Amino acid sequence: MPPFRLLNLVLCGALSSACSPRDSRESLEPRAPVEDAPPESTTPVVTRGGDQARGPAFVALAWDQLRIVLLHDGGHAYPPDFVLGSDLAADPAARAELGLQNPGDSLWLPYSAMAVVTPESTLLIDAGGARSLFPEAGRLAESMALAGLSRDQVDTVVLTHAHPDHIGGLVKDGEPAFPHARILLTKDEHDHWLSPELCEGDGMEAEMARYVAATFALLGPAIDVVVPPAEVMNGVKLLPIVGHTPGHGMVEVATPARSLWHVGDLFLLPLFVTSPDLRPATIPGERAALLLEDMFRIRALAEEEGPWVVASHLPPFPSLGTIASDHVWRSHPL
Ligand SMILES: [Zn+2]
């Protein structure tokens, strides 16, 4: 499959802007007001391993009964106009912010997944891409092994959405990669991609629908649907943030320190956090309006409530940070 076709399969519809991550002086300690500061015991122990730039790699935040593991799946180099749209990709200021100095420069975006591990359960959020489609991705299993996790221990996979760079890792050598896991996604997402009308159509969306259908056919009864908002595990909720795809979900995880919001592909690049109106131009009509609405809504909520925010492709891995009141994404210096 030609490289550009791969691109189309990847971030489907994501036209965003990116910028290099900004320095942050914030630590992983809770950022609540002083009078509400949680006790010292809520500060997680942070460990990491692997090649943090290209993967495989992991970053883990651990408390007594909870471990959150950010897992590097690798990444993909995109033509800037695919991610940004042609106008923004040609804008000198945007290109400078993204470090795109030459006309042929590509934009590298990391791919990631996240595990929520308790004594009773291991939940995985997204599964990364298949290496057959994305030659520099598909490193999830290696990253899990570095973190001391196995595919066999995963009992639940929650998909933020069903694009190929999030579901490709569900299958390994034609078999379910997580043989003991149920695979959860929103009903709207499931029904959109498995719509016969879409699967039989033409174009990028139809091509992706056929990929989803083929992948889900291999997974059979493991596929399960849920209507958000819904609690998928104790302390883990799936909430709707529609737009990037028709049934895109956000996963909220309660930790002893603060909430963590995994927002999937809501924000593809830090530039879109600051300027949501530069939203992905490839997303069609009505969905573009929904995406814009949710980008502003989630940004405002994040600024008000101060959660950790994880987004699948925000550079650099581990794509975890906070959104400050000045509308700026600040990556944590893990
Ligand atoms: Zn994605």
Description:
This protein has eleven helices and 17 strands. By secondary structure, it is α+β, with helices and mostly antiparallel strands. It has one domain: Ribonuclease Z/Hydroxyacylglutathione hydrolase-like (Metallo-beta-lactamase, Chain A), CATH 3.60.15. Strands 1-2-3-4-5-6-9-10 form an eight-stranded mixed sheet. A seven-stranded mixed sheet has the order 11-12-13-14-15-16-17. A hairpin with an 8-residue loop joins strand 12 and strand 13 (249-254). The two termini are 36 Å apart. Bound molecules: zinc ion. Zinc ion (ZN) is lined by residues 11, 163, 165-166, 265, 312-313. Zinc ion is lined by residues 11, 163, 165-166, 265, 312-313.
Question: What is this structure, in a nutshell?
Answer:
The chain is of the alpha+beta class. The protein has helices at 3-10, 80-84, 86-89, 92-97, 140-146, 164-167, 187-193, 196-199, 204-219, 270-274, 285-305, and strands spanning 45-50, 57-62, 67-78, 107-117, 122-125, 156-158, 171-172, 175-176, 182-186, 223-226, 230-233, 236-240, 249-254, 259-262, 308-310, 320-323, 329-331. Helix content is 26%, strand content 25%.
Features:
eight-stranded mixed sheet; alpha+beta; Metallo-beta-lactamase, Chain A; binds zinc ion; 25% strand
Write the layout of secondary structure elements.
Blueprint: H1 3-10, E1 45-50, E2 57-62, E3 67-78, H2 80-84, H3 86-89, H4 92-97, E4 107-117, E5 122-125, H5 140-146, E6 156-158, H6 164-167, E7 171-172, E8 175-176, E9 182-186, H7 187-193, H8 196-199, H9 204-219, E10 223-226, E11 230-233, E12 236-240, E13 249-254, E14 259-262, H10 270-274, H11 285-305, E15 308-310, E16 320-323, E17 329-331
Parallel strand pairs: 5-6, 6-9, 9-10, 14-15
Antiparallel strand pairs: 1-2, 2-3, 3-4, 4-5, 7-8, 11-12, 12-13, 13-14, 15-16, 16-17
The chain binds zinc ion (ZN).
